[in-house]
Amino acid sequence: MKTIARVLLILTLGAVPAWAVLGEYESSVSLDTQFMRGEDRVTSAQGYKLHQITSPTGAVVTEYVSPEGKVFGVSWRAPVIPNLEQLLGSYITPVQQAAQAQTRRRGGPFIVRAGDLVFVSGGHMRAFRGSAYVPSLLPKNVSAEVVR
Amino acid sequence: MTLQRHSVVPLARLLAVVGGLIFLASCGGSSSSTPINPPPPPTTNNSIDLSVNLGPTAPTTDYFNGLFASVEVCEPGSTTNCTTVPNVLVDTGSYGLRLLSGAVSGLSLPAVTDSGGNAVQECIGFISLAYIWGPVVQADIHLSGESASSASVHIISESPQYSVPSSCIPTGPVGTPEDLNSVSALGANGILGLGGFPQDCGSACADASTAPAQYYSCPSGNCNITAVPTTSTKGQVWNPVALFPQDNNGVLISLLSVPAGGAATDSGSLIFGIGTQTNNALGSVQIYGVSDQAYFTTTYNGTQFSNSFIDSGSNAYYFLDSGALGGIECADYQGWYCPGSPLSITVTNTGTNGTTGSVTFTIENTDSLFNTGFAAFNDLGGDSGDSLSTDYFDFGVPFFLGRNVFVGIAGQTVTGVSNVPYGFWAY
User: Fold this and answer.
1) Residue range B371-380, pLDDT digits in tens
2) A76, A82, B178, B303: which one has the fewest Cβ atoms less than 10 Å from its Cβ?
């Protein structure tokens, strides 16, 4: 039983990075397009690259990739909030913790600055928007403000 | 004409008694000259009371700047099997009526079903990454003399029949996402969504190939996304105002002003219809058209924030970020502003129809405001983003205090208003 439990645990944990994007290598973007059934449009900017994935539901997810091939930021515009575990990977943990610690702010934007993550969730029903980036992964001479 | 403010009434009576001596002073207000022939009384009672108070969970959990009303719902077609739900949050940032299951447990409300005959369930995620979940049912909604018959209403299940699908939880299936399916978590008995769209999703949810994670059905217990039409009955959840036979083109929210530093409570009126009766004329307000996503542009210090909006479901002015304001975040309350002295902010709002106008408001120290124990503040503020690239302006309840604010519903006709295909704000 113990062996089975360990194997299941590994499989479960193993599934998370498969969907993860933020902080992962660019190859994980293709998994995102599969998951979102979306079209991926790649464009280049000064010092980084963007994948813009548009899903049939109208969600637009943009993933920001450094010259080293790592996703340093993600952003979304969507009719419902996208699955953030898929977009943030291991960076979801501080967001989950902060989501359960909210008090007194009601109906306002949700902002998390935790360790090596900056996360913003905002907008309103039918038009959600948000972004997340990892400061330590920002490419040289690229401002965090490009993630929007 | 300008609506008469409740607080003015005693003064007006006094002036009437004192007589002509003060007549000139009374003409100094914003109301225009007295009409020679008084207009006919309203044909339908179209006004309900609003209250700003600490909400049904106080004092355990105070809901600062919570805007609440009572809503009557009945079994479809019944005038006796009805219940009045108090403390429903009035939210211009969403669309449709959502009630906790416990608030309507005495009623038998028929399920809305999808094309496969399965009961429709709905999941709504909030920007706080919390969510609500439960079935969509039919009910007659009564608000004063106005009725939305057999309207789709979202029931927020306190003991859900089906597990919430992981696809609709913003934080995903890992961890313990925050559900708001209780009065203690929601801070209200429900949400009355009166924003400028008729439905809470629109055409995307009507087609299985484009439907986002919002409407579900659960044949054999497994919940999957399902298509739900935009029809006014047996379809998506509608802003009930758009379902009224009359006074259905929007609402007017009129709340009394409060002094700097707040008031224990505040009150006012929610009036249905725009330009349809004597009590909801636009008068001299300006019309700000919104985008297809219900945003307009706010400009501050030369920077444009094109994703700004007015939202009675937000309990503060949420705008800019602490860094942009010189570092004024409270030491104890993360995300709230604690300026050392009152901070005046002036912005310009621009509608999609080209209307521009300035708004000035003041932010005071959140610590001091919370310490009053009051509920209603016109000077409560917090951050909206992390930098100018993610910031925006969310004009919450403080904006409404002491103003008449109209919400025009997309696609509806308002006399004298044009070029606003996605609805408008007017104030």
Assistant:
1) 999 999 999 9
2) B303
